[in-house]
Amino acid sequence: xxxxxxxxxxxxxxxxxxxxxxxxxxxxxxxxxxxxxxxxxxxxxxxxxxxxxxxxxxxxxxxxxxxxxxxxxxxxxxxxxxxxxxxx
Length: 88
What we know:
By secondary structure, this protein is mainly α. Helices cover 83% and strands 0% of the residues. It has one domain. It is elongated, with a radius of gyration of 19 Å.
């Protein structure tokens, strides 16, 4: 446990001072709201892909699904990054 605390202190020492405090609670809530919308888009894309019947639209559905998945994953990574730095 102490090793982990020492490691975290070293990591914090390398971060620029402005980066440590640059995330407000309001920004975090905005990113979380955006992630919820992206999750809704992902569910819609999954539903569209699962219910498509026209073979000509399969490629479009695959691209739409992958795009929605990547956006959602990006937002989750961003939120985790903010929460990590906000806890400092």
